[in-house]
Write a structure and sequence with these properties.
Length: 240
């Protein structure tokens, strides 16, 4: 069976900024990576409201569609699904929550990655809360019209601009950092807002790498929303 991972983000560049080099690394390690973006869509009628220049109003949605798919190719994302919500419009309501339960059950991931709940962006916080709760609810014998129950073993938060004081995990991304930078360059429509983002991610990756003794790292925080079975964790320690 394929080793699947599911990555949630509010906006099309979030997972690239937060964990792009880890996605590339996990792709090289044989994992199948699916991305779900709340404020993005492949559908032509979706209109994005988050644009940096007024004259981009008409063309921004198409730019965002293309940019994300280009970045996916560079990082090795298998598929990106968009929920088509407007920027600053992610709400933790019943319909969105149940839709996420359904997506988790459809993709059957080993682990889930999502935004950190202490992020200052309202969309990021909403995505974090919705996906963490859906991780738990997807594993229960409820909402049977939304697929068979599925329990992903772990859920990890990735960081963007609000950083973890003490990450629980750091990935060694020394060999895939260049792919993250390349993928970030695809998001040209974001560059007026995120002009120095490439220097930022490189600096942060060096700081995160330092704490595990490698050149570049990306940090994660494991969620304790659902406990991990102790004996399973001990078993995985034996393997390493
Ligand atoms: Zn975002």
């Amino acid at each position: 069976m394929a080793k699947r991972l599911l990555v949630f983000g509010a906006h099309a560049d979030d997972e690239t900024i937060g964990m792009g080099a880890t996605i590339a690394l996990l792709n090289e390690l044989g994992y199948e990576i699916q991305v779900v973006t709340f404020c993005w869509s492949k559908e032509k009628d979706w209109q994005d409201t988050g644009y940096a220049r007024p004259d981009w109003r008409e063309t921004i949605a198409e730019m965002r569609r293309r940019e994300a798919l280009e970045a996916d190719k560079i990082l090795g994302v298998r598929e990106r699904v968009g929920l088509g919500l407007p920027t600053q419009g992610v709400v933790n309501d019943k319909a969105t929550y149940q839709h996420v339960v359904e997506l988790i059950r459809r993709f059957k991931p080993l682990a889930i990655f999502t935004h950190y709940y202490r992020d200052k962006h309202r969309d990021h916080r909403a995505v974090s809360h919705i996906t963490t709760e859906a991780w738990w609810k997807a594993s229960e014998k409820v909402l049977t019209d939304k697929g068979e129950p599925w329990k992903a073993t772990s859920l990890f938060f990735y960081e963007i601009f609000d950083l973890f004081t003490r990450p629980s995990h750091v990935a060694d991304v020394s060999n895939t950092m260049y792919r993250k930078v390349e993928a970030l360059r695809c998001f040209k429509s974001q560059m007026p807002v995120l002009s120095d983002v490439i220097s930022y991610v490189e600096g942060l990756a060096m700081a995160r790498g330092y704490i595990i003794g490698v050149k570049y790292g990306e940090a994660f925080l494991s969620s304790n929303f659902m406990p991990t079975r102790l004996e399973k964790t001990l078993e995985s320690l034996e393997e390493t």
